[in-house]
Design brief:
Rhopdopsin 7-helix transmembrane proteins; single chain; disordered N terminus; disordered C terminus; 71% helix; mainly alpha; two-stranded antiparallel sheet; globular
């Protein structure tokens, strides 16, 4: 992206903006996804069809979160990649697996909810756990096939300040723009249309049917809100601005500099931060799909409220605090 004909691009913005975002996403995402996966695995025998997709959603998040420390070091060192070309490609590949894997599994969840609500009699007993596992394997395969060509583009560039490109060097940006547009259509636009179609039909059916269980309506509306939030905040801005930024780079390569190039670049970097938030927002699907997690949250809040509201016990008799028990909870 270093082009001497366009000096007004603020490349320093990335190094100031992304590291704090990565740190927050890494900490919160690791805790939230770890807790959600632990809850799902703890109730493995009760695992439902939809929870298989939720489980894979969490695995996609964990895979990406483990690459964030490398990206933090990269941006803290002012875009100097010290881990080699292979690890750069693997890091970017994991990001794409997380992004499009998340979109794929959210689409599977949407289709399953659609079938369960709109066509319950047709799918009753026909959709099994084996089917959901097979569909999950197919999603991973398709996402990998879509992401694999990205690894063949030049990812590192420079002598003393080697960069690890999110896309590719300006040398191949023309071809990469075409690849990115096709990737956006198959990996994002089609799943988005399927998801919107499924939930649109679900909402119509729920509004027309007065006999539908109120709890089912609420759960469906909550899941719809979560999916809309994920697509609106994380996925739509990223794909629009990524391709717009690539187009701007193509123009720069042709020695054509637009006044909006810097604004597009900064907006794209912000969208990169937002798309990382999907690893923090995806656990909301755990809260929706697993009835045990809200109960665990309430239990933890009640315990914390008791601990902070209750005055500390007197220790006038000189009994060591480690031996005191309060309401069944041992103090340390």
């Amino acid at each position: 992206m270093n082009n001497t004909s366009c000096h007004h691009i603020n490349f320093e913005f990335t190094g100031r903006f992304l590291p704090p975002v990565y740190i927050l996403v890494f900490i919160i995402g690791l805790v939230a996804n770890g807790w959600g996966l632990k809850s799902l695995l703890h109730n493995w025998k009760k695992l439902k069809i939809i929870n298989v997709f939720v489980l894979n959603l969490g695995l996609a998040d964990i895979l990406y979160l483990f690459t964030l420390p490398l990206l933090m070091v990269y941006h803290v060192l002012n875009s100097k990649w010290i881990f080699g070309d292979t690890l750069c490609k693997i890091t970017r590949f994991c990001f794409n697996l997380n992004l499009y894997g998340s979109i794929g599994f959210l689409t599977c969840i949407s289709v399953y909810r659609y079938l369960a609500i709109v066509h319950p009699m047709r799918v009753m007993g026909r959709l099994t756990l084996t089917h959901s596992v097979g569909i999950s394997v197919m999603v991973w395969f398709l996402v990998s096939v879509q992401s694999l060509p990205d690894m063949f583009y030049l990812k590192t560039f420079g002598n003393n300040t080697e960069q690890c490109f999110e896309t590719t060097s300006h040398i191949y940006v023309d071809d990469y723009l075409k690849y990115s547009l096709g990737w956006t259509f198959t990996g994002f636009c089609i799943p988005l249309l399927i998801t919107l179609g499924c939930y649109g039909h679900v909402i119509v059916v729920l509004c027309r049917t007065n006999t539908t269980d109120k709890v089912l309506k609420q759960r469906s509306l909550k899941l719809l809100f979560i999916v809309i939030l994920l697509f609106s905040v994380c996925y739509i801005p990223y794909h629009v601005l990524k391709n717009l930024n690539l187009w701007s780079r193509v123009l720069q390569k042709q020695k054509i500099c637009r006044e909006w190039s810097n604004r597009v670049y900064i907006a794209h970097q912000i969208s990169r931060g937002l798309v990382c938030l999907n690893s923090v927002l995806n656990p909301l699907v755990y809260l929706h799909g697993n009835e045990d997690i809200p109960a665990q949250l309430r239990q933890l809040l009640q315990q914390a409220r008791r601990m902070f509201s209750r005055p500390p016990p007197a220790n006038s008799a000189g009994v060591p605090m480690a031996q005191i028990t309060d309401g069944g909870y041992r103090t340390c």
